Amino acid sequence: MDLSNLKPAEGATQAGQRLGRGEGSGRGGHSSTRGTKGQSSRSGSGTRPIWFEGGQTPLFQRVPKHGFNNAPFRTDYAIANVKRLQRLLDEEVLDEDEPVTPEVLADLGVVRTANRVKILGDGDLFDALEVKAHAFSESARQKIKQAGGSVTVVDQ
User: Fold this and answer.
1) In this structure, are strands 78-81 and 117-120 parallel, antiparallel, or unpaired?
2) Range(s) of the domain holding residue 87
3) 3-class DSSP state of 105
4) CB distance 108 to 114 below 8 Å
5) Is residue 66 part of a domain?
6) pLDDT tens, position by position, 16-74
């Protein structure tokens, strides 16, 4: 005997009841074990959606709609602060002579991705740096220029 010859023991299985196949079948005819009338006696009467309120006007249709959500269209930036650039200079990870680009920041782990990097002005910068990024806050722009560095906005 092998797996291809296995079958259930005699009498171990039964065929399912066939509903709605006439009075003589014992499970058919008038209402086919569904009771009388009502939603659950109709065909296609499965579970209703969780927001279904029994025919009452649903909540999302009753409350007023107003406002606007710009989330699908907003521009998300990976951010880096000026103090982080200064710390990298202090730790001699960055070189003052090399330009700081989004790719350099991504390689150093300052930002996760080199796409859309914005430099913010938290902290202080004491060394002149050539910084290239997709956007700068006004305070970051001022601090980089005060330290003798340059700011370049790169395109996508």
Assistant:
1) parallel
2) 75-153
3) helix
4) no
5) no
6) 888 888 888 888 888 888 888 888 888 887 788 888 898 899 999 999 999 998 999 99
Q: How far apart are CA 37 and CA 51, in angstroms?
A: 24
- Residue 134 domain flag: yes
Residue 79 φ/ψ, nearest 5 degrees:
-110, 150
The single-letter DSSP state of residue 139 is H
Report CA Rg, the chain.
35
Closest CA to 111 of 128, 135, 130: 135
Alpha carbons 4 and 109: distance in angstroms, whole number = 58
DSSP string, 96-119: TTS-B-HHHHHHHTSSS-SSSEEE
Interval 111-152: pLDDT, tens: 999 999 999 999 999 999 999 999 999 999 999 999 999 999
CA dist., res. 84 & res. 117, Å (int): 14
Q: Is the pTM above the cut of 0.70?
A: no
